[in-house]
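Module 6 notes. Inverse folding takes a fixed backbone as the condition and produces residue identities as the prediction. Think of it as a translation problem where the source language is geometry and the target language is the twenty amino acids. Below is one complete input and output pair. Work through it position by position during the lab.
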């Protein structure tokens, strides 16, 4: 689940990212991307799990900067670049935004638990071995123990950034990327196979 600046993930080439931009233009000639189109671009279909759909809905909401329920081309370019090539601190700020469902600038346990459950379920469906024997509730509680410095039951952006960068266990369990570069490259391979006769 972790993001590392390294990039243990395979590197995504600019030409591959340009393919996503072309896909945006062909799927959304109006210049505005709706949720169902966003899911389609990233390979989430009616056959996808509820968790994968929820994950994409959270991503969509976080990228919709002006909150008009669409993603325009500039929002899309920024999103693709951030997820596939962004710096760790920028990814963490975006991750915080995804967790902060109500947009109040603070995370409560309900918000964190919800995302942790989604991530755990997606990992389970993908057949990833669980190296962590903790339940989503236990992971959430441990994250709050580490990050909620003032013990007010909420995590501020500052607490989130500082705590995630100090503790690798916390960073690994907070991050949302699910290895986006590897996922993206795998989706590209699947799409190429579908196009072949």
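Target side of the pair, the amino acids:
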């Amino acid at each position: 689940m972790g993001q590392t600046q390294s990039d243990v993930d395979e590197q995504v080439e600019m030409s591959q990212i340009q393919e996503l931009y072309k896909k945006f233009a062909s799927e959304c000639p109006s210049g505005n991307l709706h949720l169902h189109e966003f899911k389609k671009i990233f390979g989430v279909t009616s056959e996808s799990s509820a968790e994968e759909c929820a994950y994409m809905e959270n991503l969509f909401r976080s990228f919709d900067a002006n909150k008009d329920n669409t993603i325009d081309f500039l929002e899309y370019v920024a999103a693709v670049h951030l997820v596939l090539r962004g710096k760790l601190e920028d990814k963490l700020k975006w991750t915080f935004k995804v967790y902060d469902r109500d947009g109040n600038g603070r995370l409560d346990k309900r918000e964190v638990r919800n995302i942790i459950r989604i991530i755990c379920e997606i990992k389970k469906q993908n057949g990833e071995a669980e190296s962590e024997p903790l339940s989503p509730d236990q992971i959430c509680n441990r994250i709050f123990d580490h990050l909620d410095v003032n013990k007010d039951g909420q995590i501020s952006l500052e607490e989130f950034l500082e705590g995630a960068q100090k503790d690798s266990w916390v960073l690994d369990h907070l991050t949302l990327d699910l290895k986006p570069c590897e996922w993206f490259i795998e989706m590209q391979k699947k799409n190429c196979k579908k196009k072949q006769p």
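Reference fact for the lab report: The two ends are 35 Å apart (CA to CA).
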